[in-house]
Design a protein that fits this description.
Elements: E1 2-8, H1 14-25, E2 39-47, E3 56-65, E4 68-76, H2 79-115
Parallel strand pairs: 1-2
Antiparallel strand pairs: 2-3, 3-4
Helix pairs in contact: 1-2
Length: about 140
């Protein structure tokens, strides 16, 4: 997984960078295979609103998956909570994506099985031995 981190209005520390990498890399288990590369663009910024006091952090992530782009955004007063909420949104969307791919594969397998349907006279039985008493 390729992760690009951009910050605005504050400096990116190695601790924050490791934290974001750990959270985004934990989403690797929701991918269906290793045959494709996922790109993630994470933007973290410190914003201020006129009607709110204090700091407000915005965490936003865009992920490019094969056949789909997903995005999650979070605005909270704590940076780490914003990152966690962003990860939860991505996790939910990636679960839906993975389940959709699995159901497509199963649906295709059902269609193939339906086309290869055998005649009703073809029977597959286990051969049973009849053990006679006295042998």
């Amino acid at each position: 997984m390729k992760i690009d981190i951009k910050t605005k209005n504050f400096k990116l520390t190695p601790f924050i960078e490791d934290y974001v990498n750990k959270k985004i890399n934990s989403l690797d288990k929701f991918t269906t295979g290793d045959d494709f590369e996922i790109e993630a663009l994470v933007e973290i910024e410190k914003t201020t609103f006129h009607h709110k006091k204090g700091q407000v952090f915005k965490a936003e992530c865009h992920m490019k998956l094969p056949g789909k782009n997903i995005m999650a955004k979070s605005l909270l007063e704590d940076l780490y909570l914003a990152i966690n909420e962003m990860k939860d949104g991505l996790q939910r969307q990636m679960k839906e994506y993975k389940n959709k791919l699995i159901s497509k594969r199963k649906r295709g397998a059902r269609a193939v099985k339906k086309e290869i349907r055998l005649s009703p006279q073809a029977r597959f039985r286990k051969r049973e031995r009849i053990i006679e008493e006295g042998e």
